[in-house]
Amino acid sequence: MMNRLFAIALLGTSLAVPAAAQQGQQGQGQQPQAPPTTSAFLRNMYNGNKNNILRSAEKVPEDLYGLRPGPQEEVRTFGQHLAHVANYNFLWCAQARGEKNPNAGVNFEKTLKTKAEIQKVLADSFAFCDPAYASLNDENGAQVVEIQQENGRVTRNTREALLMLNVVHNNELYGNLVTTMRIKSIVPPSSEPRPAQGGRGQ
Known about the structure:
By secondary structure, the protein is mainly alpha-helical. It contains 6 helices and 2 strands; from the N terminus they run H-H-H-H-H-E-E-H.
């Protein structure tokens, strides 16, 4: 899974950076802008995805937190998807920050039951990640860190790659949240109307 997430993230980066460069060329005659960087692009991705997930947790009523998009017991419920995001925010952002995971050994998917509990730990996990993304730049992003994968195996890669992995993982989880919301005719945050903006959401 980790390799697939990296591939998706790198593709998105390669498409976005040339587009940003093109926008800079179109803005000739205006005040010069800072050149686009991968770290800035990743930070924007993180913030957009964070807002979508937090808004999803808010929009869905508590009686749907136990809903699965299918009968299989191994499929996570809506609430468990949110708790899973929190688990990995703490895990990977702790590694990116070079700190101990403050919730090491805790599985929020099994311990949290109510909407209020899940919303709180989800918000706390993003607050824990915020400094890692806010301080990211191309220099410190190139530093090598240890990454613990889902199967417990430890690998080494750059800090930027680790934070990219976290964003792509969360975006994949958001897709699962969207499925549950659509089943119940709830408009996902990414599809809510935006003034003076076109395009389709999920």
